[in-house]
Amino acid sequence: MAKRHNQNLPIQDIINEFVESNKLQGGLDEVNVKEAWKRLMGNGVNNYTTAIELKKDTLFVKLSSSVLREELSYGNQKIIDMLNEAIGKPVVQKLVLR
Question: How much is the mean pLDDT over the chain?
Answer without folding.
Answer: 90
